[in-house]
Amino acid sequence: MEAKSSKQKQNSTFPRKSSPRDMELWKVLSSQNLPAVLNDPNRGKQRDFFTKLWGEDFVETAFIGNLEHLPEVSYSSFEHYLKKVNKRLKQHEKLNHAISGGPLSPKRPAALPEKLQSDVSGIPRIFMQSNFDLRVPETFQTIHSLKGEVTSPSESSSKPLNSAKVLQEKVAKQPIAVPNRNILSDSQLAHYLDIVEVQIAYQVTQKSDSFFQAMSSHDALMEKLSRTSKTVSSLRSNLRNMDQYLVQDSLKILQCAQMKQNYFAVVEKLKLMVTVNQTQSMLQLLLSIPDYVAAIDLICTTQEILVQELAGINGFRHLSSQLSEMQRLIDKILSAEFERYVTADLNRPLDQYTEVLEEDKLASIVYGMLRQKYFNFANKYKEEAFTSIKATVKQLVIEEIAANDSGEGDMRLTGTGEQLQGLSLNQWRQLLERTAEALLRVVNHVKVVHDVMREAVDKSSGKNVQSDGKSSEEDSGISYLNISDPSETLLTPDERKIVNFCLGELLCSVCDFANDQFAQLLTMQSKEIWVERATAVQVCDVARIVDNFVDSCIRVCDKRSTALTSAFKVQASKFINKFHQDQKDKLTMILASETWKQTVVPQQFQNLADKLHETGKLTLPKRDLDSSVSISNGNHNSAGAPALVMGGEKYVVVGSILLLLKMMAEYCLCADELSVMAPNLLRCLVELLQLFNSRSCQLVLGAGALHSVGLNTITSTNLALMSRSLQLVLVAAEAAKQQLLPSVTDSQRIVMHLANLEKDIMSHCKEIENKLLALICGLVSREVSQWDARPPVPSNSFRNVSKHMRKLHEAISEVLPEKQVQNLYRNAHKMFKIVLKEQLVKMNILNNGGPQHG
């Protein structure tokens, strides 16, 4: 029953709001039908201030966690206190019971009779459910199937009925006999309702204090709400006044400012439309200047404006396609103008002072191509330069052939150069010289155009280039070339590197092609010109032309082209082979006719020796080279000095040595002029000196001169002249080594050959010295072997020995240097003592102080 009573408490609601007047008329008996009024099954369960049950759950509480700074207090903490106070509490309760006469306080309301508490159990439980609703078919069927219950008289007879109301309830509970019906009667339902009303009345009586308190709080809340409503109304009135007198005017000012701004935006948009409408006429004006970069920028800017600012305007719906077509037309104009400019620039007569044709126009075209990212303009210019070089070479060849043609026959320039082979060597050299000058003019002009293009590229990447103290605008004459804002540059750093690389390749390719064409012209000449008719002077002149051309190309492009150098090296090799063979044949003939006698030294050879001593180089003027015929004939009796003086030292030599010095000077001169052939010439010179050393050894030491020139014998004078000549050869060979070796790349093998040559010549000199020593020792030995230890003293043998020594000194003292003569006589003196000792031993002459010893 207690559970049912608590459930009824939870399901009870109080939706109606009472006024103060109702509170004044309300009495205890007025709550008789209050449960019926409050129990409205059509309303759901209300959870508000007026429907909450009074108790600890009436006010919602939040969970408060444990405090950190307070200790936990448990029941055990109060056990001591409770035990101490427990006795006093019991005594106090006994006193209270004795005074009040019972455990209940007079102010507590009377408890509900047990009969009323138990009557609730007689009501079917379905009426107590919270979801009770007769509209539900199952609920209605359950109520319909319930059987009526009648309370027996014995249950109510135990207590007397004190009122008519109780009797009425008893009669109402009597069942009404209705045949064949199993439903609840109206009296039963009324009885159930009365029981519930009594329970509600009791509950209201129990909670009357809380109810009145809630109503009081409700009245206070209503009064506060009224005051709040008045305050809100006043606030709204103030806000309306502020909005009308303060805010609206300011908003109107802002609206006017916004309208003004919108009007300005419309005007600017109209101006922009007018400007865009004038784009085509502006493009025509820019192309007529010509200013291709500005025209292309105008097209790009207009297209961006059409997409971003003027999108959706029907008047401009075809303008974008027109601008795209105009941009493609500008691309074609740039290509055509560049080709036309290049053709006009390179096909005109060029001289040393020819300037760039219309530099401003070239810069404008280049800027336009850079703006459109067309980086192949360098290749187009390169192809046109190749064509110009070919035409230049062909024109020069035709002019040279026509100038030297006799007028007979048909003059045609064939691929094999048949007409060129008819030219003399001087004519051919003049043709090469003119061709080199013309090609250098073309190359230098390409370099000037390249500089203009490079300057345009640098400015396009944001790099301002100044030349000759002028600003970039003054140099170019075009105002838009001065780019200072990095965001407006035409080229990125990577693109600038690509274009500069292409321009560098342009210079290198033009120089290489010019070298190739010059090399083809060089190789058109027949082999007999180089082998039979060319002289050293003429070949050196050609070498000078080739070297100057190659060096000029290197200054232009900082790169050496090997085509011309290789071609000239092939042709020069033919000349060097023939030249070397001629020199060897000439030297062989000179040595074969050499009498190995002292010769008079002409002045030109003394000049050669002086130059060698001063500069350390073997050089001979070209006019002395031209007089090679008279000298080679052996004209040694002409006026001149008896000896060759070099550095204060005299060299008494034979005539072949002077011619050998001249040959060595020719080799060194050719090596200086033909720098590419210096290694070959140095090897040939070593071979020539080895030939001279070996052949002279055969003629002198081997006595070959007895048969070649009819000498009776090889005298000591011949040997001394040969030794002194070899010493001069060593000096000249060392000078040639110092002169030519720095220009040789693979010098290790050449140095080894030179060392072997020096070793062979020194060995040859040593053999000559030994030959002289053997000669004098033979004479001394013959005279000493005939000597006998008898008067007169000195004997004839010793007189003859002195005579031989004196004659040898007279023969070699004017030829060999004094130090060498002293060494020779010192060795001869040693040999003389050895021979004399042997003779004394043979004659058994002892150191005993006897007559023979004396």
From TrEMBL:
Main location: Golgi
Claim: Protein transport is one of the keywords in the record: yes
Stretches the record annotates as Disordered: 1-23, 459-481
Keyword Nucleotidyltransferase included in the entry's annotation: no
Homology family: Belongs to the VPS54 family.
Location of this chain's protein in the cell: Golgi apparatus, trans-Golgi network
Official protein name in the record: Vacuolar protein sorting-associated protein 54
Residues annotated as domain Vacuolar protein sorting-associated protein 54 C-terminal: 649-776
One BP term from GO: protein transport
Annotated keywords: Coiled coil, Golgi apparatus, Protein transport, Transport
Vacuolar protein sorting-associated protein 54 N-terminal domain residues: 187-394
GO molecular function: syntaxin binding
Cellular component annotations (GO), alphabetically ordered: cytosol; GARP complex
Top-level taxonomy: Eukaryota, Metazoa, Ecdysozoa, Arthropoda, Hexapoda
Residues spanning the membrane: none
